[in-house]
Write the structure tokens for this entry.
Amino acid sequence: PRSLLRPKPVPKSSGALRRKKCEPAVASSLIKKIFSHYAKMPVARDSFQVIEKCSEKYFRQLSNDLEAYSSHAGRKTVEMADLEVLMRRQGLVTDRMPLHVLIERNLPLEYRKLLIPVAMSGNKVIPCK
């Protein structure tokens, strides 16, 4: 009769169920480095936390917009044309300031070579599609 009165043992749950999903984020050191490069003046430490939150919201909105543009076009892949449409809507790319000029002004040479097609000797175009 005592075995009937004992409560059944509750199985222990694994720790994986209790963990929250961790979203990928831009490293705070990278945000600090980029912002301090463009600010050109000292920035207080507590202001970097606000900058991190703002940049996280910005990149989340940016990715949602790019996803909407590509799905509207019936694609599952975001292409450079989607990014150009988004930058036009933000006012960064205009008729006087095309995307290639913006890339040349703001990115280092290694990234420019990857984004802007360049004709090389031997009738080769880099980057090839």
Observations:
- The CA atoms of residues 25 and 60 lie 10 Å apart.
- Strands lie at 118-120, 124-126.
- The first strand starts at residue 118 and ends at 120.
- The mean pLDDT is 80.
